[in-house]
Specification:
12% of the residues lie in helices and 28% in strands. By secondary structure, the chain is of the alpha+beta class. It is elongated and about 90 Å long. Keywords: Signal.
Length: 246
């Protein structure tokens, strides 16, 4: 996919990294985009390389230019050696802003993927899996089901994203893509690759299993099975007590 060529065994000065043409570095010959980036934990540092080597960058990438991403500046370009110059100023546009209007992502291997992450666990908050904004550097897992984003009734701070095949007790079949309530939780479903990376949506005034109550042959959820068998049994028991004084 790419070749690495060593040009000179001399480390560039700090001023060359920021303001001058880079002349003593590795030259990557490849078919991916190149980048120059800052580091939020050390403003003196600048990194250069191929986007293929960077975990969690947006996919697909936006057009060539300079963007903001997690308090860092990312400049990308697509011609050989184009990232050797000084880093430019960010345009102020988020690196993944184009994904907010992206309808479908076609994976190269044909396997759909879902973002898989948890916002809060064991007292630790994970900002890469936010409730009200797009995910950052979240893990992508293959999925042969539907992607989801959901809340938890026990802790409103917790948001999770993943594939529905990992969730027990969901209705079968699932309803159309959209956001629903289930008990006191919110469940948002979508069926295209990487579609659950956006902010949690606003639920419709519908339960996630409402469609099963109107569709013959549908497999009811655990909640409906309880309602169907337990509640009539309790009603019959009460009637027997009234008539026979049991």
């Amino acid at each position: 996919m790419y070749e690495l060529q060593r040009r000179r065994n001399i480390r560039p000065s700090m001023s060359e990294r920021w303001t001058g043409k880079l002349t003593n570095s590795f030259l990557w010959k490849l078919h991916w985009s190149l980048f120059t980036k800052t580091f939020k934990n050390d403003p003196r540092k600048v990194g250069r390389g191929c986007t293929q080597s960077q975990y969690g960058v947006p996919y697909p990438l936006p057009p060539s230019g300079c963007y903001t991403y997690s308090d860092e500046t990312w400049c990308i370009c697509s011609t050989p050696g184009c990232n050797g110059g000084p880093i430019d100023i960010s345009s102020g546009v988020e690196f993944d802003e184009h994904l907010n209007v992206l309808e479908n992502v076609v994976e190269l291997d044909g396997i759909n993927r879902c973002y898989q992450c948890l916002s809060f666990s064991d007292g630790v908050y994970y900002p890469q899996c936010p409730r009200n904004s797009r995910v950052k550097n979240a893990f992508l897992a293959p999925c042969n089901g539907t992607c989801f984003t959901r809340t938890y009734d026990k802790d409103e701070r917790v948001i999770s994203r993943g594939c529905t095949t990992s969730q027990w007790g969901l209705p079968n079949p699932l309803p159309p893509d959209g956001c629903y309530t289930w008990y006191t939780e919110i469940w948002c479903l979508c069926s295209t690759s990487r579609c659950n990376g956006a902010a949690l949506g606003i639920p419709q005034n519908r339960e996630i299993d409402d469609h099963l109550k109107k569709t013959p042959g549908g497999q009811r959820s655990v909640k409906d099975n309880i309602d169907m068998f337990v509640l009539p049994f309790l009603a019959i028991t009460c009637i027997l007590k009234m008539f026979f004084h049991v």
